[in-house]
């Protein structure tokens, strides 16, 4: 089954999820050929949910003995250069890239739904960190992002916000349905919290210090008392904050993800609740009802 997205991308439905046609082959290559190591960390997200932030944080946590904050590669390169996506970067051009020599712990990112992850990720000791975000802010963020970047578009006349929102609610968007994407990782986390950490964008916004500690513990690199006393947690949180990253020259210019995306477009507002500037209370009500029915009984909730 195929469908055009609201902004003119060709989508294909496979096993209940909608994928950008152009990403389908790299995703299948990654599923078939990626061999996870036990020490790997996989950042999984629905797009526009805090991927860039989580990449910067996990990279900084894992490499804090290799680089001091003022030598961090994040000062010179966009987080998406430092932590690549399996499907948008590594398996984009190559069916089976050689990833053996990347220093451990290797960190990779993906937007794949949980059931689609490569078998080796499911089977070995690697860990998965997922970050979810409330659907209304995710939709607004995604809309801005897609209007700004031409990612495989075949039509030049994007649909208006009402039609786009309706398609979002029906799950017809890249990596959608949103609900099933979140739910899949939430269930996996509930079943095996040592394998899957489930974070929320809003929680990171509310208390970054406790979330950074939690991420470090989950990754197997808890902060020592000494490190905490030296202020390392604050330094990492500060370096990876929206304001800090957005103002770096490396994030103001250039492109990423095979030239498809402007680096600057990964940093728009970085706020919780920006949806109120674009969407109506009736739209919010529709999403509230959808969340109730889709997440029913699971304990998963996003405040809106
Ligand atoms: P907005 O469009 O609402 O501003 P992703 O990284 O998954 O593509 O998500 C992008 C969203 O995260 C954008 O949201 C972006 O501004 C926000 N973002 C990027 N870096 C961030 C950071 N360091 N802290 C908080 N939000 C960040």
TrEMBL record:
Keyword match Ribonucleoprotein: no
Class of enzymatic activity (EC top level): transferase
Annotated GO MF terms: sulfotransferase activity
The protein's name in its UniProt record: Sulfotransferase
InterPro entries (UniProt xref): P-loop_NTPase, Sulfotransferase_dom
Enzyme Commission code: 2.8.2.-
Domain (Sulfotransferase): residue spans on this chain: 38-299
Family under the similarity heading: Belongs to the sulfotransferase 1 family.
Organism for this UniProt entry: Sesamum angolense
Pfam families linked to this entry: Sulfotransfer_1 (PF00685)
Record key words, sorted: Transferase
Lineage of source species: Eukaryota, Viridiplantae, Streptophyta, Embryophyta, Tracheophyta
Domain of life: Eukaryota
């Amino acid at each position: 089954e195929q469908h055009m997205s609201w902004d003119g991308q060709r989508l294909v439905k496979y096993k209940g999820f909608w994928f950008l046609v152009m990403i389908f082959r790299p995703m299948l290559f990654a599923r078939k050929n990626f061999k996870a190591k036990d020490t790997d960390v996989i950042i999984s997200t629905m797009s526009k949910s805090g991927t860039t932030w989580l990449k910067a944080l996990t990279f900084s946590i894992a490499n804090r003995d290799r680089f001091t904050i003022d030598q961090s590669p994040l000062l010179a390169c966009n987080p998406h250069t430092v932590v690549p996506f399996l499907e948008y970067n590594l398996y984009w051009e190559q069916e089976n890239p050689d990833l053996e020599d990347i220093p451990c712990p290797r960190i990779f990112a993906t937007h794949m739904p949980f059931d689609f992850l490569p078998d080796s990720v499911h089977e070995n000791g690697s860990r998965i960190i997922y970050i979810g975000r409330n659907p209304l802010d995710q939709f607004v963020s995604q809309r801005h992002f897609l209007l700004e970047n031409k990612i495989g578009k075949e039509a030049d006349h994007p649909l208006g916000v009402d039609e786009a929102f309706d398609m979002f609610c029906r799950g017809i968007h890249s990596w959608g349905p949103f609900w099933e994407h979140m739910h899949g990782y939430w269930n996996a986390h509930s079943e095996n919290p040592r394998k899957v950490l489930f974070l929320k964008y809003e929680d990171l916004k509310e208390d970054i210090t406790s979330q950074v500690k939690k991420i470090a513990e989950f990754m197997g690199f808890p902060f020592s008392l000494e490190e905490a006393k030296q202020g390392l947690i604050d330094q990492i949180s500060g370096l990876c904050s929206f304001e800090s990253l957005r103002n770096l020259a490396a994030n103001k210019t250039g492109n990423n993800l095979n030239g498809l995306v402007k680096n600057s477009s990964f940093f728009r507002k970085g706020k919780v609740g920006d949806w109120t500037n674009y969407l109506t209370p009736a739209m919010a009500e529709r999403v509230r009802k959808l969340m109730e029915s889709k997440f029913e009984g699971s304990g998963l909730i996003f405040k809106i």
